[in-house]
Amino acid sequence: MAPLLRVSDLRAHYVGFGGTRVVKAVDGVSFSVEAGETFGLVGESGCGKTTTCHAIVRLLSPSGRIVSGRIELEGEDLVKKSQAEMRRIRGRRIATILQDPMASLDPLFSIYDQVAEPAYYHRSLRGRSLRQRVMELLAAVRIPSPERRMKDFPHQLSGGMRQRIVGAIAQAGGPRLIIADEPTTNLDVTIQLQYLNLLKDLQRATGVALIFVTHNLGIVAKMCDRVGVMYAGKIVEMQSVRGLFYRARHPYTKALLDSIPKLGVRQPLYGIPGQPPDLSALPAGCAFHPRCQRATDRCRVEEPRQHSPNGDGHVRCWLPIEEAAARG
Ligand SMILES: Nc1ncnc2c1ncn2[C@@H]1O[C@H](COP(=O)(O)OP(=O)(O)OP(=O)(O)O)[C@@H](O)[C@H]1O
Ligand SMILES: [Mg+2]
């Protein structure tokens, strides 16, 4: 059966200075998401995670454009859809949860209006059934006293509550896929955990698939089934979550894992040396080679192809880490 979403060789660039500066934010990204699963996208700041998400729902900023590739949702290529068609898809078939709930909520509309809108527009609910649906959605995201709270405006709620409201809005159109781009970065750790548990519960109840973007590998371990590790606009490694933590094959993935501080181990903190490259002036060969301890002459000139060492997941590296070394 075809996956729910299949992204193939997607390229999305930002073009500035009259076309003389091209930022290759997404440069040949391929992955798929099955119904009901959680696919994680991880990587350092600026590697193209948000651009990938925005390209899928066609919400790139004005300088951004999809240069090539396919984005198939249940077999239909979204790249070929008009903006009007995309408006019918956003909210109804794919919903998004962004990092900053205040940016997604409209300060001038009540919680009721904002949760009701997708159910009104995409599910044609009216009158009492619409009100009933809003109450159900607010209860599902554990807003206490939903009847009273739905008259409130965003500024009257706490940060955690606002993010739960955004979760309710995402559910309101009954989507098959939710793209959550760092949805918990602005929340404190206890509220963060509550929110992640809530998303998991909603997923179990509705069978919705999730693309979960984060740079926190602890959250990846908790939330995701499979993970794509992005570096400089490309997915450099893709694996099951278990595989990623126990058999990381790309030196970048290994470096990310090594930079998590470990409790009870007295070691100097490790950080990946150097900086991510400028995406408008990428180095030749593998984009990670200037920071990679394993880099050889070939890595400096020839870009690694994607390959699957054991048929499970894939990696873009000329010298992937062997199984035994990955465990050490
Ligand atoms: N509107 C824009 N115009 C030009 N360049 C942009 C624009 N938005 C993003 N970029 C560039 O595209 C690259 C990828 O950005 P993106 O926001 O997708 O990264 P990210 O992985 O989501 O990072 P973060 O973890 O910080 O959210 C970066 O180099 C960024 O500077
Ligand atoms: Mg981002």
Write up what this structure looks like.
The protein has helices spanning 49-56, 83-89, 101-104, 111-123, 127-140, 146-149, 159-172, 189-206, 217-223, 241-246, 251-258, 297-301, 323-327, and strands spanning 5-16, 21-33, 38-42, 64-73, 76-77, 94-97, 177-181, 209-213, 226-231, 234-240, 306-307, 314-316. The protein has 328 residues and is α/β, with parallel strands linked by helices. It has two domains: 5-224, Rossmann fold (3-Layer(aba) Sandwich), CATH 3.40.50; 230-239 and 247-327, no CATH class. The longest helix is centred in the middle third of the chain and has 18 residues, at 189-206. The model has no long low-confidence stretch (mean pLDDT 93). Adenosine-5'-triphosphate (ATP) binds at residues 14, 23, 25, 43, 45-51, 61, 63-64, 215, 279.
- Global outline: globular
Q: Largest sheet, described in full?
A: 8 strands, mixed
Structural domain count:
2
Structural class per helix/strand content? alpha/beta
Write the CATH architecture name of the largest domain. 3-Layer(aba) Sandwich
What are the segments in which pLDDT stays under 50 over at least 5 consecutive residues? none
